[in-house]
Design goal:
This protein has about 300 residues and is an all-alpha fold. Helices cover about 80% and strands about 0% of the residues.
C-alpha cells in the first residue's frame, strides 16, 4: 500500500513539473518570459485562486465531519507555521546577518502552499483536498503578512493591518465558509464560469513557476551548503514532525494528507518577490525556492504517502 501510494503521488508530482517544464521552455524560447509572468501572478493571486477556493467551498457538501475539519485544519496550519518559526529561530540565530537570517527563516516557515500544494491536493485528494488546503493558505497569508515581512525585511517593515485582513487568500476563505455552512445554491450560469476559471489555476501556476526555474542559477543551487540546510528543514524535518504530531492528536484521513501536502511543499516562490520588495537578497530567495522545489520531487511523494499509512 505504501509503495502504491508513493507511485500515485510521484506521478501527480511529475505531471505538475512537466507542466512547469512548459513554462521553462517558453522562457528559454522567449515566448513567455519571467518578466511577463509577473502580471500573470497578479491574475492568479487576485482572481483565479480566490475563485477556485470559493467554488470549492460552495460545492462542498455540508457534514459534521467537514465542519469540524475546517477548525482542525486551521489548528494544524497554525501549529505547522508555529513549529517552523521555532525551528527557524533556533537554527538561524544571531550568527547570521539579520537580512540573510530573515530570508532563511522565511524560506523555512513558508511553503508553496497556493501554487503547488493546492494543485497537488486537487490531483491526489480531489475537492476535499482543496477545501482543507484553502484553510492552510488563509493561515499562511495571516502569518506571512505579519511575521513573514517582519523577518524578510530585516525587522524594518511595518505590519499593514489592511493587507492582513483584505488580501485575496483571506477574503476567499471568508466568503467561502458562509457559502459552505449555509449551503447556498448558486445558479449554474455563475457556478460554471467559476469552475472554468478555477480550473486554470493549477496549470497556469505551474507554467509561471517554470519561468522562475528557467532563470535560476543552478551552479549556486548546487554549491551553497546553507541552501541544503533550509531544504532539509522545509522538506523533511518540519513535515515529518508535524505528521507525528497530527497522528498523536488523532488527525487522520484526507484531512491529514491535505495538511501534510501543504506542510511538505517546497519553499514559497514569493520568497524572492518579498526579498526584492524589501531590499533583501532576491537572488538568494530564488535559489532557495528553486533548490527545494527540485528536491521536493523526491521528498513529497514519500512523506505524503506516509500520511496515509502511519
Amino acid at each position: 500500500m505504501f509503495i502504491e501510494n508513493i507511485k500515485t503521488i510521484a506521478l501527480q508530482v511529475l505531471i505538475l513539473y512537466l507542466i512547469a517544464a512548459v513554462g521553462f521552455a517558453a522562457d528559454k524560447t522567449n515566448v513567455f518570459r519571467k518578466s511577463d509572468s509577473k502580471k500573470v501572478i497578479d491574475l492568479l493571486f487576485n482572481i483565479v485562486l480566490p475563485i477556485a477556493v470559493i467554488h470549492t467551498f460552495m460545492n462542498m457538501e455540508y457534514t459534521a465531519e467537514h465542519a469540524r475539519g475546517l477548525f482542525v485544519a486551521f489548528l494544524c496550519a497554525a501549529a505547522t507555521h508555529a513549529f517552523g518559526i521555532a525551528v527557524g529561530f533556533v537554527v538561524f540565530g544571531k550568527r547570521f546577518p539579520v537580512m540573510k537570517r530573515g530570508i532563511y527563516r522565511y524560506a523555512t516557515v513558508f511553503s508553496n502552499a497556493a501554487f503547488l500544494a493546492l494543485p497537488l491536493a486537487k490531483s491526489v485528494i480531489g475537492d476535499e483536498g482543496v477545501f482543507y488546503c484553502s484553510i492552510y493558505v488563509g493561515t499562511f497569508n495571516i502569518i506571512a503578512f505579519t511575521y513573514g515581512i517582519y523577518e524578510i525585511s530585516g525587522h524594518k517593515a511595518k505590519i499593514n493591518l489592511k493587507k492582513l485582513i483584505f488580501n485575496p487568500g483571506t477574503i476567499s476563505v471568508a466568503v467561502g465558509i458562509p457559502l459552505f455552512l449555509l449551503q447556498l445554491k448558486i445558479p449554474y450560469v455563475i457556478s460554471y464560469p467559476m469552475e472554468l476559471i478555477g480550473g486554470i489555476n493549477s496549470p497556469l501556476a505551474m507554467i509561471v513557476f517554470g519561468t522562475f526555474l528557467a532563470n535560476s542559477n543552478f551552479k549556486q543551487i548546487i554549491i551553497k551548503k546553507e541552501l541544503y540546510l533550509v531544504s532539509f528543514l522545509r522538506l523533511i524535518l518540519i513535515p515529518v514532525c508535524m505528521l507525528g504530531l497530527f497522528r498523536l492528536c488523532g488527525v487522520s484521513g484526507d484531512l491529514r494528507a491535505a495538511m501534510i501536502i501543504s506542510a511538505s511543499a517546497p519553499t514559497a516562490t514569493n520568497t524572492a518577490m518579498y526579498a526584492a520588495k524589501y531590499d533583501n537578497d532576491a537572488e538568494l530567495g530564488s535559489e532557495i525556492a528553486t533548490q527545494s522545489s527540485l528536491l521536493s520531487m523526491l521528498t513529497m511523494p514519500v512523506i505524503v504517502a506516509l500520511a496515509y499509512v502511519i
